[in-house]
Amino acid sequence: MTVMKKLAVAADTERLDTWVKYHKTLCASCRGTCCSLPVEVRLEDLIRLGEADEFERQEPLKQIARRLTKTGIVGHFNHKSGLFTLARRANGDCRYLDPASRLCTIYAKRPDTCRNHPQVGPRPGYCAWQPKSAS
Hints:
The protein is α+β, with helices and mostly antiparallel strands. It contains four helices and five strands; from the N terminus they run αββααββαβ. The chain has helices spanning 3-6, 43-49, 61-70, 112-115; strands spanning 20-21, 40-41, 74-78, 83-86, 126-127. Strands 2-4-3 form a three-stranded antiparallel sheet. Strands 1-5 form a two-stranded antiparallel sheet. The model has no long low-confidence stretch (mean pLDDT 91).
């Protein structure tokens, strides 16, 4: 039985029990569902993305979060952990996901959270695979 036949039903991002065991071949047939999950980033990620400046390392994270929230880059800042959550489009997609191709527009500079998915995340080793034809 092929991987595709086993994946007759698309995962529900809100129900981790519907996620499938990750295998690198899944990405080619997926609509980029992981790119509709919240993305937590650190200041280093924001600097790599060009959304924050190297000089801002000296600034309080709260101040950086305030600026990036106003510009629509950050949707939330967790003061305790120092993690920023990237803002998303109205449909829940990552702001850096191309809506037509469903490919990352910043792949080479993507945040560590994205680089390490699905080894880290809500269900490590599993992904919320959905076929490209799903909407």
